[in-house]
Input
Amino acid sequence: MANKYDFIIAELRDKIGTIIFNNPSKLNALTSAMLLEIIEALLEFKEEKARVVIIRSAKWSKVWSSGHDINELPLDGIDPLGQEKPLEKALSAIQTYPAPVIAMIEGSVWGGACDLTITCDLAIGTPECSFAITPAKIGVPYNASGILHFINRLGLSHAKEMFFTGTPVDAETALHFGIINHIVDSTDVETFTYDLASKISKNSPLSIEVIKEQFRILTNAHPITPNAFEHIESLRRKVYCSEDYKEGINSFKEKRKPDYKGK
Ligand code: YXS
Output
């Protein structure tokens, strides 16, 4: 499979697909262009009937991904995390991919990339990996589907601690919180991850596909009333139309600490 992408490398071997982030100059920030390439690569793997997909950064990465490209966060009153956005579409593509997607983590993981990690079915991290979900740091009103990913994966109290503090958790804590399934030394993490993928790839793809879809349906089975949804959206709109939202993004761009006023 010839690699035709600019910001990722896509490989397929023995029914195992691999997506390698390849935008080191931006610390693998999840730009729209990179996210659309991830979606396209997953479609390719689906056509090739890849039975497992591994998403990773280059070997020995210090930063797995610095999260959503902050320069692409809108400042004009548009929802930064609307369902039509490439990040949400990529998360949905991972959730609906008809086989397990495994995140192999080397380095630090930030914001939307942390959501991407826990949206994958499994995650393997090295002892040096860390994870931070950062909307509170940047003043972003995270969305309900993203918060549900964290509740489902980490449980309420761990999810609340990560969202409210916005600070990175280390590999041991990430294992305790359920973000990662295993901690494996950097020298062995590739062998471990591909052995795991190979084991899965030899099981029944039809059975795994329907089991994964049941996990997705059952974990998303949180019916809320239209009023509740509209209430959430009106609260979120107040935040992404606030001065504090602009302050969070501008302070990052100006490389200074934000001064939030609560309005
Ligand atoms: O100064 P230059 O032009 O070289 O650019 C710097 C950074 O501005 C840039 N950069 C980013 N640009 C856009 N979006 C990003 N997420 C981003 N992260 C970094 O990359 C160049 C090198 O960064 P620098 O000098 O800070 O590197 P470092 O090695 O000292 O520090 C690496 C990090 C990752 C610890 C640091 O760059 C950092 O804290 N980045 C922001 C991580 C973060 O908060 N990401 C969340 C993005 S917002 C998001 O994902 C969601 C919307 S939410 O917030 O809701 O979760």
Observations:
- The chain has a mean pLDDT of 97.
- The chain has eleven helices and ten strands.
- The radius of gyration is 18 Å.
